[in-house]
Give the backbone structure.
Amino acid sequence: MSTAYLMVIIGAALWGITGLFVQYLYVYGFTPWEVVGIRLTFSTVLIFTYLLLKKRALLKVRIKDLPFFAGTGIVSIAFFNYFFFTVMNEASLSLSVVLLYTGPVFVAVISRFTFGEPFTSNKVTALILMLAGCSLTVGLLPAGQLNVSAMIILFGLASGFFYALYSIFGKYVSSRYHTLTITAYSMLFGSFFLVPTSQLWTKAELFAEPGVIMNGLGLALFATVLAYAFYTYGLTYVESSRAAILSTVEPVVAIIVGTALFNDMLSIWQAAGMLFVILSVLLTVQKKRQPLKKKAA
């Protein structure tokens, strides 16, 4: 069991280093939309290569379920990455990951209306903590003066919203398919959408640069495919609510990367705001303990 917990933590930590590869791809002149295209395309090739060689049975899907994969891949993954990477480019890695982590609270709110899931007192408290945390992080509290533009805040919240939609779309097919199947086809649809819209071929000469290939593969292999593989392995033995709690190591790692490597500066109030956002996630995924039932005599 301890190994499973470690796998979840490693997976989340690998997600946390996403910004490391993204920031270096920006150095070569790629835009956020193009970086999303690189991430999804490279990841699609890696995942499908693995499935074709090792687990072909997982590639079987029903035609009528393809719209849901389009939803997870295009509506969710493509756009949450775009807004996430844009905030990372225009503001900071630390801010981008904190605003992205409003996603679980968005899931709780959306699920109330789409699936009729109860909106508990924990979730209400989580929503309040999320709003307070975001306000502290962007400078609205306590000074009443924003440290970043309203557009950046809107983009950051949009990243959290579209991130949340993955769980909403994915819920419709999660009972019929292995999570690796859902991820593979989500990446495939996302890359089908991103390649023509990002027009990556116009920068084909950049892919001759070793640094571009290394960071593109790093983004796809470590921060996407292996991160998912470790996390999924852990989910086999750890209940999802506990895994979600453990995954809060992701923003912690991202903030460490941002401050240590990219000189992100954090005030005491911003640090407190980030802590509030993490606490809101913990409250969102926390379940009330059910009383133990006595065994029948």
